[in-house]
Amino acid sequence: MADQSDNPGGEQSEEQTNQEQPRPTGNPVMSHMMSNKVAVALWLTRIFTVVCTVLYMLPLFGGNPLSFYYRALISSAATSALRLHQRLPNFQLSREFLARLFLEDSCHYLLFSIIFINSHPNTMALVPVFLFGLLHASTYTTTILNLMGPQSMMFLRNMLTKLQTQQVNILRFIACNEIFLMLAIIAMMFSGKASLILPFVYYRFLTLRYSSQRNPYCRTLFSELRMTIEHLCNKPQCPQIVRNITNKGISLITRLAPAVNPPQ
Q1: Domain span at residue 198?
Q2: Contact 166, 212 (CB under 8 A)
Q3: What CA–CA distance (Å, rounded) separates 114 from 116?
């Protein structure tokens, strides 16, 4: 999901995927869009995800906010499915293909969207799809602005530049949201708003994110959280019973963590 600093989440860009296609002459923006129809479709679905999330958070035009919640997740699922098809166009019913499939970050978020489309609304579930959509859409919007000219829409260009400079912080925040969403799901389960199976399904998603070869932020955040908690528990002010419970919890989570293969 190519270098981490160039693409949100380290994912190979749609422009790179389509860069070898012939481009017709004429208006540079229209020529680029006609030559990169899949990238344009991804751009539009991501913008739709961002808009629906904003309308869910801020119901400015009335209507049922829950409809925008589910539209945002459906749009995110469509984005992930389209990107997955772009990354792995030739479907094969084989163990090797399925292994490659589950290595793709777009597969992870297709699973994520399906999980929350079929569960009780949870605002935290919209945070990662909103931010990923915003980052990827801003990258392609910058490409369009560059085709329009170096001085085109400077206000929007400056906003996008500021957003992209915060890319690492945003990706870290997404990873943190992915982790703490598990706690929210457990709370939903005890309050009767989630089924007993939901934490186990989401645990599978979390292991995929932890093992991601292109996006190491979930793994990094887990490590940083562990070091922070251990540092706090080792202070003399921490009661022994709290220290024991915390250490057992850390040991359990460590055992549940999947093995991570080195990046290929």
Answers
A1: 8-215
A2: no
A3: 6
Q: Distance of alpha carbon 74 from its chain centroid, rounded?
A: 14
What tokens does 151 get? Answer: 């001085």
- 194 contacts 120 by C-beta, under 8 angstroms: yes
- Rounded to whole angstroms, what are the CA distances from 34 to 30, 44, 141? 6, 14, 15
Cβ(218)–Cβ(179) below 8 Å: yes
Number of CB atoms found within 10 A of residue 93's CB: 6
- pLDDT 10s digits, 65-119: 899 999 999 999 999 999 998 888 777 778 888 888 888 899 999 999 999 999 8
The residue to which tokens 């030739």 are assigned: 90
Q: Encode pLDDT of 134-190 as tens digits.
A: 999 999 998 888 888 777 788 888 898 899 899 999 999 999 999 999 999 999 999
CB 71 within 8 A of CB 104: no
Distance of CA 13 to the CA centre of its chain: 15
Q: What angle do the packed helices 65-87 and 126-148 form, to 10 degrees?
A: 60
Quote the number of domains for the chain: 1
Does a structural domain hold residue 239? no
Residue 163, in any domain of the structure:
yes
**Largest separation between any pair of C-alpha atoms in the chain:** 73
Residue 55: inside a domain, yes or no?
Answer: yes
Looking at the domain assignment, is residue 235 inside a domain? no
